Amino acid sequence: MTITITAFERSPDGGKGLARDTRVRWALEEVGQPYAVRFVSFAAMKEPAHLAVHPFGQIPTYEADDLVLFETGAIVLHLAERHAGLLPGDANARAHAIAWMFAALNTVEPPILEFATARLFERDKPWHAERLPLVEDRVRQRLDLLSDRLGDADWLDGAFSAGDLMMVSVLLRLKPSGMLDGHPKLAAYVARGEARPAYKRAFAAQLAVNNPQVAG
Question: What is the number of alpha carbons within 13 Å of residue 120 lying toward its C-beta?
Fold first, then answer.
């Protein structure tokens, strides 16, 4: 079985690990599966060939034999269920890990993306000064509750799982803003994720595409 994923030909973040293919790369590294990458330009993402594998014209996609998937949550869950390393063996523990995956994508990430949009792309809007504090507050509410749930544990629910992989990936979007500084337990949690050898390999692979001199 040959696994092929798609990624930006040139990532908007310059290879800082925020593009969503990093999540899939990380999962593949965690479960020890080799993969190939097909790079696509912004123009190619909107063409019929790519829309056939991702109906919304985004990245990443996953192709293995006759299976084609899109959406990082679906791809990471598929990998976690097919290969050992990202889900516990106990059925209830597996269900908890999957619940944390959904929490990362459905509860924690939406306000973070809203904050990033307001902070980076809406500065010239007349309502920016009023809107930004409201968006920040929604993010902080989520972070407060998540930090309380994590407590002094290393990971969200026992051993590292796909739930942690997805949650760390989501929280990484806040690093440029400094918002994690007010939540030291979450900052340490993210740092533990970044310190995993599998994450380092995934990050280096994306960085090499966008900054080959730095990566080398």
Answer: 12
